[in-house]
Amino acid sequence: MSPATEERLGFTATLAGSYADTAQLASKWGCEVDDSVIHALVQRLGSKAEVQTQERLKQVAQESQPQRRAAELAAVMMDGWHVRFRGPGWGKKKTKKDRVECTN
């Protein structure tokens, strides 16, 4: 199996629901392969990816610009809902007064 076919089958296996579905999709583009072969391929690719991930995690993350000084500005995000204040008619069943005061 060529590396390009392995890559294509591995990618298809991540999107398909099962190895049988992957085999069925692969037959559409002319690659007749058994689902057990796809399972073995996915296991091999997954273990290779796990080794690469563990190697990457051993390295300490480096700052992209360590010489840069701290910024003086800060961005603050506040909750932005409009406050409605209770008017003199708030909670009354019948009232001629405003239930909510409008503050513009």
Structure write-up:
The chain has a domain at 3-58. The chain has helices spanning 3-15, 19-28, 35-58; strands at 85-86, 100-101. With 104 residues, the protein is mostly helical. The chain has a two-stranded antiparallel sheet with strand order 1-2.
What number is the mean pLDDT?
83
Low-confidence regions: none
* Structural class estimated from helices and strands: mainly alpha
Shape: elongated
Number of strands: 2
Amino-to-carboxy terminus distance: 71 Å
Number of helices: 3
Helix content: 40-55%
Question: How are the strands of the largest sheet arranged?
Answer: 1-2
What is the string of SSEs from the N terminus onward?
Answer: HHHEE
Estimated radius of gyration = 30 Å
Give the biggest sheet.
Answer: 2 strands, antiparallel
Percent in strands = under 5%
Tags for this model:
mainly alpha, 104 residues, two-stranded antiparallel ribbon, 4% strand, elongated, single chain
Put the structure in a nutshell.
By secondary structure, the chain is mainly α. It has a domain at 3-58. The chain is built from 3 helices and 2 strands.
